[in-house]
Write a structure and sequence with these properties.
This protein has about 300 residues and is mostly helical. It has helices spanning about 5-15, 20-30, 35-55, 65-70, 80-95, 100-115, 120-135, 145-150, 155-185, 190-215, 220-230, 235-245, 245-260, 265-280, 285-290. Helix 10 (about 190-215) packs parallel to helix 14 (about 265-280). Helix content is about 75%, strand content about 0%. It folds into two domains: about 5-55; about 80-300, no CATH class.
């Protein structure tokens, strides 16, 4: 053993945690090394402080028995809900803080433009885009400041993603409903259902698509692709006929535009995309693509 090796194991020697052979080697080295003697004095002082501190802490009576009772106690119906609540509360703190006011500001801007322009249906255009961008920023090293800690927890990645998805989706839904209620001040109340149904299904589908694409392609690419697909279905039919000489292409684009007018189909596709996104988050290939090894998930 060289000098550096002895410096490394001196704390263990001071704590009495070395094997007999290593302890004998240290004791043979100490008389001829003044540096290790000084280091040992330091570590012995630290060890003494730790022992003193440990003795000053009084163990609560019957602590072991109470812990075992808690472990063996059958979990009631409230236990899963408590765990879900704790997960939601923890993940709320890990979502980008800047996202909350940014999403609210964009939604407010959309309402202002709709009121000024007199086109209240502008909220149909804004709400899905805002929701899609926020869901595209839920996962990955570029969006999660505690990504390594998140990967090291025993909680499944898909559960973490589902918790964040639930939190942000609920926030987006409340914002869109608030925007719709504000617009009702400039429209008859009986149009509430029409306004809500106009953006609800497209927002669900576009958000689910943005989330899945962000897992596969990254946040920037996901936002770019979903925005392109969303804006494309607003292209007037006359321009489509001018741009595409083929009637087949015209039929495809027309069918694509009609897709956004079918809420049941959009909801079905949204559920399928969300399921695929959650499966992707828990798949080993996705974790490796995010720079997370198989063992990281359980590393403290």
């Amino acid at each position: 053993m060289n000098h550096e090796d002895f410096e490394t194991i001196l704390p263990l020697y001071a704590a009495g945690q070395l094997a007999e052979a290593e302890r004998d080697a240290v004791e043979a080295h100490l008389p001829v090394c003044s540096v290790c003697q000084a280091d040992l004095a330091l570590w012995q002082a630290v060890s003494g402080e730790i022992r003193t501190a440990n003795r000053s802490v009084a163990v609560p009576p019957a602590l072991g028995e109470r812990v075992l009772q808690q472990i063996r106690r059958p979990s009631g119906l409230a236990h899963p809900f408590n765990r879900a609540w704790q997960l939601l509360r923890a993940q709320t703190l890990l979502v980008h803080r800047e996202m909350w006011p940014a999403v609210a500001a964009l939604m407010a801007l959309g309402v202002i433009v709709a009121v000024i322009s007199g086109h209240l249906e502008f909220v149909y255009f804004v709400a899905p885009m805002v929701a899609a961008a926020s869901l595209a920023m839920l996962s990955g090293q570029e969006n999660d400041p505690a990504f390594e800690l998140t990967a090291a927890t025993p909680t499944s990645p898909w559960k973490i993603l589902l918790a964040r998805l639930s939190i942000v989706s609920a926030y987006n839904l409340l914002l869109a409903l608030a925007a719709t209620l504000v617009l009702l001040g400039f429209a008859p109340p009986h149009l509430l259902g029409t306004l809500v149904l106009g953006w609800l299904a497209p927002m669900a589908f576009l958000s689910a698509l943005a989330l899945l694409l962000s897992l596969w392609l990254g946040t920037t690419n996901a936002i770019g692709l979903t925005y392109t697909l969303w804006v494309a279905h607003y292209v007037p039919y006359q321009l489509i006929e001018q741009w595409t000489a083929s009637s087949a292409w015209t039929g495809v684009i027309t069918a694509y535009q009609q897709l956004w007018q079918k809420p049941p189909l959009l909801w079905a596709l949204a559920i399928l995309l969300l399921g695929t996104a959650l499966w992707s988050a828990g798949h080993p290939a996705f974790r490796l693509n995010q720079g997370v090894s198989e063992g990281d998930q359980y590393r403290a």
